Amino acid sequence: MLKKADQGNILAEIAVKGMQEKKAKEIVKVDLRKLNLSVADYFVICHAESDKQIDAIADSVEDEIRNATGEKPFSREGFRLAEWIILDYSNLVVHIFNNEKRRFYNLEDLWSDGIVTRYEDVT
């Protein structure tokens, strides 16, 4: 098990790796720790071009985190429609959108008071 203080960021970086392996688009990590109303320590957000890619990204994130830490998400939502999949690891929440839903909900702007880190797309 990871130390609580390090756990969110370590899980977030592992989630980013899982997203990059499946060529997720516009990956963003939002550090929410300094916000009093945050629901987690970190969000990691991305989008994909198809429901199959969204599923593949979610599977890759879960596999990477489980293989590296033994952690499993407390909650998994959105697999039926695969428009917005959420993997909740308590101190990390992973959001995998289709492009349309991502633009509509715009979580990066909603939580822009956090520290935002953007990652290069893998081609």
Describe the structure.
There is one protein chain. This protein is an alpha+beta fold. Helices cover 39% and strands 27% of the residues. It has four helices and six strands; from the N terminus they run H-E-E-H-E-E-E-H-H-E. It has helices at 4-21, 51-69, 99-105, 107-110; strands at residues 25-31, 42-48, 75-77, 84-88, 92-98, 115-118. It has a six-stranded mixed β-sheet with strand order 3-4-5-2-1-6. Helix 1 (4-21) packs across helix 2. It starts with a helix and ends in a 5-residue tail after the last strand. The mean pLDDT is 93.
What's the layout of helices and strands?
Blueprint: H1 4-21, E1 25-31, E2 42-48, H2 51-69, E3 75-77, E4 84-88, E5 92-98, H3 99-105, H4 107-110, E6 115-118
Parallel strand pairs: 2-5
Antiparallel strand pairs: 1-2, 1-6, 3-4, 4-5
Helix pairs in contact: 1-2
* N-end to C-end Cα span: 33 Å
Mean pLDDT: 93
Structural class: alpha+beta
Q: How many DSSP helices?
A: 4
Largest sheet, spatial ordering of strands: 3-4-5-2-1-6
Percent helix range? 25-40%
Give the low-confidence spans. Answer: none
Please summarize the sheet with the most strands. Answer: 6 strands, mixed
